[in-house]
Write a structure and sequence with these properties.
This protein is mainly α. Helices cover 68% and strands 0% of the residues. The protein has helices at 11-27, 37-51, 59-78, 86-105. The mean pLDDT is 84.
């Protein structure tokens, strides 16, 4: 199994993660605020956190992170709540990285 890393930037991986979230939300009937505030916030939050990473991160980790943040923001928006905070997003990012790293080690 070959592992692709975010060596050449993370934008394509964020795009794939957001596209997957959009597909899941549309198929589940939850709707997606494409191009709206929830999507813009999701993209900005994910890009900010990924930009803080000093080392190569597996691309799948970035894609899963983007998808999770986008779905969470969309669900919070439908509930009339504010977007995911940077504190919670950063915590989730660290947990997701640890999980993916442990899977890749085995």
């Amino acid at each position: 199994m070959t592992i692709q890393y975010m060596d050449n930037g993370f934008a394509p991986h964020v795009d794939r993660g957001l596209a997957t979230a959009r597909s899941r939300l549309d198929s589940g009937g939850a709707g997606w605020d494409q191009g709206g505030e929830a999507e813009k916030h999701s993209r900005a939050m994910v890009e900010h956190i990924l930009a803080l990473e000093p080392e190569g991160v597996p691309a799948v980790t970035a894609e899963l992170f983007a998808e999770a943040i986008a779905v969470a923001n969309a669900m919070r928006q439908t509930q009339g709540r504010g977007p995911v905070t940077s504190f919670r997003a950063r915590d989730f990012w660290e947990i997701l990285k640890d999980l993916i790293d442990s899977v890749l080690e085995h």
